[in-house]
């Protein structure tokens, strides 16, 4: 299945929808319509059913904001890294809680030492 690259950018109240492979340009009222308008344009231009190809949409610019795709990529990486660090912190906390419990420290005291509720300390000790 062919995939067509679509670039969207704002021009006044409209989203301009560029299809570079066809040297095509159409417009949409909202970003939610970009995919539909691109598919309609491609389907009419190539005389194909709209579901016979894929489109990938990227946002080129919105006014002076041009670093949209790079910023989205950075945010996605940061979210992935945050999830990894969170999982690592949870594993380290569970390890500490278990080591303290092995030394006969009460779950209530483990919670106080680690700044956690009794319930959370209990979860970590028994994880």
Give a verbal description of the structure.
This protein has 127 residues and is α+β, with helices and mostly antiparallel strands. The chain is 50% helix and 22% strand. The chain has a four-stranded mixed beta sheet with strand order 3-2-1-4, covered by helices on one side. A hairpin with a 4-residue loop joins strand 2 and strand 3. Helix 2 runs antiparallel to helix 3, helix 2 crosses helix 4 and helix 3 packs across helix 4. It starts with a strand and ends with a helix. The model has no long low-confidence stretch (mean pLDDT 96).
SSE class = alpha+beta
The CATH architecture name of the largest domain reads: 2-Layer Sandwich
Name the overall outline.
elongated
Helix content: 40-55%
Strand count, sense and barrel status of the largest sheet are: 4 strands, mixed
**Spans of at least 5 consecutive residues with low confidence:** none
């Amino acid at each position: 299945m062919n995939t067509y690259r679509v670039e969207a950018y704002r021009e006044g109240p409209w989203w301009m929808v560029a299809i570079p492979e066809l040297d095509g340009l159409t417009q949409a009222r909202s970003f939610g319509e970009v995919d539909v308008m691109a598919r309609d344009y491609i389907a009419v231009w190539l005389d194909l059913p709209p579901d016979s190809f894929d489109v990938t949409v990227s946002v080129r610019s919105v006014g002076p904001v041009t670093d949209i795709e790079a910023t989205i990529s950075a945010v996605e990486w940061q979210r992935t890294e945050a999830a990894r660090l969170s999982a690592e912190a949870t594993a380290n906390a569970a390890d500490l809680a278990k080591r303290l419990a092995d030394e006969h420290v009460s779950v209530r005291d483990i919670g106080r030492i680690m700044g956690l509720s009794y319930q959370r300390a209990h979860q970590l000790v028994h994880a």
